[in-house]
Amino acid sequence: QVRVVESGGGLAQAGGSLRLSCVASGSVLIISAMGWYRQRPGKEREMVAYMNGGSADYVDSVKGRFTISRDIDKNAVYLQMNSLKPEDTAVYYCTANVRTDYSDDYDDFWGQGTQVTVSS
């Protein structure tokens, strides 16, 4: 199986920064893409930042503030979050699109989520 584990969430003040990390491990053969989603209170889960190959996409509300990066060798993805706003408060989930060593298909695997709380 594949395990996806996030870390780095916590409490920040508005205008502050946090850095999220995520590592995929286990039966990982190839990772085609990794990214971050979030679920804000009372809202549906939304894509925050996603990196497929060398191309990165961001939701409009975080453009210019958040930066996604990957370490291919470590099967890791990071989310640098600057100029945080209270509306960034959410549970942040990491996802990885993985080809495992037991399947020819690529499947999406998700972490358990990490809480980010931004105070005003």
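(ticket continues) Second input and output from the same batch:
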Amino acid sequence: QVQLVQSGGGNVPPGGSLSLSCAASGSVLNTTYIDYMGWYRQVPGKTRELVAVIPTGGTPVFGNFVKGRFTISRDATKHTVDLQMNNLEPDDTAVYYCALGDRLAARAYWGQGTQVTVSS
């Protein structure tokens, strides 16, 4: 089983910053076939949307709403991915999920989700 363990998140006023971290592990995780690691988010009643991902051997891809406010980093040897979020807005309020794409298993694995709330 592949496990993605998330940490970070919480409450912050508009304009504030938060960071999220995620670590992947598991006996069936074949690191050779990790296609990407990154982050998605979801609010109630809406579909899950891309925040940022880093494809293996590629460059980061961001959701259109990010507009330079977030940075993502990935350690391929430790199987971790971090998201630094700056200048947060109330519309960034959501549950954030770590994601790992496994091209051998042809599926994505998801973290447990972390609430991020941006409110004054």
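Agent notes: The longest strand covers residues 34-42. The chain has no helices and eleven strands. Closing as not reproducible unless the customer responds.
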